[in-house]
């Protein structure tokens, strides 16, 4: 059991393994999956790949969402703020921060989950659609670091993540129930927040047909995520011109913002209560013994309420939500709806995927695949200016933002040619692909109540389309007994059209644009010794602007996003050099990586105290250079029978070398660190299998100091809108009570570290779950 688990656990973390007590051997740095369902990643490319299986997730990770499977991968971080975080859980990688969701690619069974309608957050948010995969349906997760495969667009510059979900070989059924509780203390908030999940799935294979379905219900409360604030310097003492003191209030918390300026925290914002339903169904049919057709449909629904609360109290002890106030003898401008907003969201999204592929493993195989992601319903209601709490809870003025009709679709044809058969020196792959994206986002004033009124007069109408057409090819060539190379390239033709930015007073239609780009790829592996492999990979990636970055100007009570229809594509060259060698039962890897990105696309958010909102402006940054080292090690039965260890340490030196733009003054970003990329990060996990039924694990995650702004002026990370270092310890106990029933208990953030990434991350959280598997 443990030997097989070791093979599964490490096959993707390191090249070809031979599990067992003898030291594993390696062959040319090519990944081989031993057992379980295979990944669709291009395993013939000798670049860094890591993976995890369903069994490992069950036994060692407190996984309430699919992105939790990535929690302990080297150099990866998902900015998940709470269970069911649907609008800010962005993936970062070695040289890409948590504001750059368009610099990674996330797929499930080959269907695109990454949301390339936009990048990051700011007005609108564009994380991957994690909710279309649930933890209980995952068979394995694999990651390829860097843009080294010609099969993927330039968005793969950071990493490519592939979720492989279950497809049964016989009848099986599953059910899971979990419950989480988070006691939360921050500023003047002292509450406990809860989340629970119910899930069920079943599948079967009979003859040429196989099917699988999964349903999931999540009901989750987040901690407060944003806060109402006033800079102390915004207050004014009574004087001869304004001798009147505003109504005095108590309860404000004196703190310092990310620029280290004193400010008062007045209350909480965006404390979400989200109720999500997920349904996934898959069916496959073997048309012939060598050709299989498969169809996937997924439905995700979300009903979310965003709440606010005030810390301020008047002389009678009643909460204060509006009007001018006096704090510590200083008069402050009137509080408004932007300080204590309310939101109601109703979302229904559909995902479809259809593929027909051959799997002869002979001279030639082919695949035709298409996918569609549709915002069937995407409505966000919010109280409007002048409509403040507590009255806003029952109605009044507000806005309705409608993104229905937004979405994307993909179509790809791929072929694999083995001119010498399975044992021949060449594996040639080629394909054509089209990816199309459509953004439609209309905001109107609500007629009557913001809670249930019909759409009225226009506030804004933004949208547009992009299309990427690609032709690619690559050849994996074993040109000598100890050598293998992969050479390839990708030609892309990008178009942006139908761009519009309209308000009640002004309508702007943008001209169409198009760009061409060619991205070469190369990788080489050398069997230096029997158990040592050296690998090198080089790839160019061109990341084209998204629709939102080009056309998606939005202005809400809390956020102003300024687009740029003339953005240039960002162009990156990425290189890595790795050495991989086993020491006993521990396999080690040391990787040096480097990336140079020109015209990097960044959305820089700066708080405007006068407008009391965050202002985000998208821009090109001239040149960012990143160099770093990544060390990873993993093994089973390390030192004693039953002990599994894995860990990683990453150092990244990422600096802005050229930039004509600036934040406060010309040149203020030159020589500064890239936002949201820490110098140091590390993970370590130890799992001990006491017997076949009981497994306990302990894990730790560390991330060093980092900045959120391009000029690194945010020197205080341990506050609202700051980005802090963190050290978090997680525990899990998994017990297989019977053949069909398992129990688990876990604690995330045992040490209760209070850390930030603009928003506060979760504090100590307790999770319990029970699973039934037939």
Automatic annotation (TrEMBL):
Compartment list: Cell outer membrane
PROSITE patterns: TONB_DEPENDENT_REC_3 (PS52016)
InterPro entries (alphabetical): Beta-barrel_TonB (IPR000531), Beta-barrel_TonB_sf (IPR036942), Plug_dom (IPR012910), Plug_dom_sf (IPR037066), TonB-dep_rcpt-like (IPR039426)
Xref: CDD domains: ligand_gated_channel
Topology of this chain in the membrane: Multi-pass membrane protein
Pfam families given in the database record: Plug (PF07715), TonB_dep_Rec_b-barrel (PF00593)
Domain TonB-dependent receptor-like beta-barrel: start-end pairs: 349-750
Residue ranges constituting the TonB-dependent receptor plug domain according to the UniProt record: 44-160
Principal localisation: membrane
Keyword terms: Cell outer membrane, Ion transport, Membrane, Receptor, Signal, TonB box, Transmembrane, Transmembrane beta strand, Transport
Signal peptide limits: 1-18
Family: Belongs to the TonB-dependent receptor family.
Descriptive protein name: TonB-dependent receptor
Species assigned in the record: Ramlibacter alkalitolerans
């Amino acid at each position: 059991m443990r030997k097989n688990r070791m093979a599964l656990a490490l096959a993707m973390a390191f090249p070809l393994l031979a599990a067992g007590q003898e030291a594993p051997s390696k062959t040319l740095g090519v990944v081989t999956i031993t057992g379980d369902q295979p990944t669709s990643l291009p395993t013939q490319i000798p670049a860094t790949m890591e993976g995890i299986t369903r069994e490992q997730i069950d036994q060692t990770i407190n996984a309430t969402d699919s992105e939790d499977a990535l929690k302990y991968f080297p150099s990866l971080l998902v900015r998940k703020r709470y269970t069911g975080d649907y609008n800010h859980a962005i993936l970062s990688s070695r040289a890409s921060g948590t504001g750059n969701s368009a610099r990674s690619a996330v797929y499930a069974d080959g269907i695109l989950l990454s949301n390339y309608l936009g990048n990051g957050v700011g007005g609108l948010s564009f994380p991957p659609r994690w909710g279309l995969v649930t933890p209980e349906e995952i068979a394995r997760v694999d990651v390829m670091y860097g843009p080294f495969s010609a099969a993927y667009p330039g968005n793969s510059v950071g990493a490519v993540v592939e979720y492989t979900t279950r497809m049964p070989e016989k009848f099986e059924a599953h059910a899971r129930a979990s419950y989480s509780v988070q006691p939360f203390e921050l500023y003047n908030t002292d509450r406990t927040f809860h989340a629970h999940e119910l899930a069920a799935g079943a599948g079967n294979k009979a003859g040429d047909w196989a099917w699988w379905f999964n349903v999931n219900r999540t009901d989750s409360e987040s901690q407060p995520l944003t806060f109402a604030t006033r800079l102390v310097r915004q207050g004014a003492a009574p004087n001869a011109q304004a001798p009147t003191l505003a109504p005095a209030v108590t309860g404000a918390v004196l703190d310092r913002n990310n620029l280290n300026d004193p400010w008062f925290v007045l209350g909480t914002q965006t404390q979400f209560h989200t109720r999500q339903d997920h349904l996934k169904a898959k069916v496959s049919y073997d048309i012939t013994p060598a050709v299989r057709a498969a169809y996937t449909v997924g439905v995700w629904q979300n009903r979310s309420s965003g709440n606010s609360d005030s810390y301020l109290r008047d002389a009678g002890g009643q909460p204060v939500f509006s009007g001018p106030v006096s704090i510590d003898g200083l008069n402050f401008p009137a509080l408004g709806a932007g300080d204590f907003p309310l939101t109601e969201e109703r979302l229904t999204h559909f995902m479809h995927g259809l593929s027909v592929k051959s799997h002869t493993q002979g001279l030639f195989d082919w695949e035709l695949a298409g996918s569609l992601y549709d915002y069937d319903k995407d409505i966000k209601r919010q109280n409007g200016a002048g409509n403040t709490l507590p009255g806003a809870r029952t109605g009044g003025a507000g806005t309705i933002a409608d993104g229905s009709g937004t979405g994307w679709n993909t179509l790809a044809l791929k072929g694999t040619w083995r001119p010498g058969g399975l044992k021949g020196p060449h594996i040639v792959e080629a394909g054509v692909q089209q990816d199309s994206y459509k953004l439609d986002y209309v905001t109107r004033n609500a007629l009557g109540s913001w809670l249930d009124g019909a759409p009225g007069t226009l506030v804004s109408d933004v949208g547009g389309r992009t299309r990427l057409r690609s032709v690619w090819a690559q050849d994996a060539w074993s040109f000598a007994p100890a050598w293998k190379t992969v050479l390839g390239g990708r030609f892309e033709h990008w178009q942006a059209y139908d761009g519009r930015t309209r308000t009640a007073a002004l309508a702007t239609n943008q001209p169409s644009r198009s760009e061409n780009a060619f991205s070469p790829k190369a990788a080489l592996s050398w069997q230096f010794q029997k158990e040592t492999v050296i690998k090198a990979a080089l790839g160019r990636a061109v990341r084209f602007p998204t629709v939102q970055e080009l056309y998606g100007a939005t202005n809400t009570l809390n956020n102003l996003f300024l687009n740029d229809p003339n953005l240039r594509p960002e162009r990156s060259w990425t290189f890595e050099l790795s050495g991989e060698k086993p020491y006993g039962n521990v396999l080690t890897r040391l990787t040096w990586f480097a990336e140079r990105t020109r015209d990097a696309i960044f959305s820089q958010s700066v708080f405007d105290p006068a407008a009391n909102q965050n202002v985000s402006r998208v821009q090109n940054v001239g040149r960012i250079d990143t160099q770093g080292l990544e060390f990873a090690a993993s093994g089973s039965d390390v030192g004693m029978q039953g002990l599994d260890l894995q860990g990683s340490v990453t150092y990244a030196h990422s600096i802005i070398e050229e930039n004509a733009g600036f934040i406060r003054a010309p040149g203020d970003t030159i020589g500064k660190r890239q936002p949201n990329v820490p110098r140091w990060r590390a993970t370590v996990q130890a799992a001990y299998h006491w017997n076949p039924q009981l497994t306990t694990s302990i894990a730790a995650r560390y991330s060093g100091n980092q900045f959120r702004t391009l000029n690194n002026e945010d020197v205080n990370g341990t506050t609202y809108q700051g980005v802090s270092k963190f050290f978090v310890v997680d525990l899990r106990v998994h017990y297989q009570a019977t053949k069909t029933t398992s129990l688990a208990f876990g604690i995330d953030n045992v040490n209760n570290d209070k850390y930030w990434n603009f928003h506060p991350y979760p504090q100590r959280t307790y999770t319990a779950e029970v699973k039934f598997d037939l």
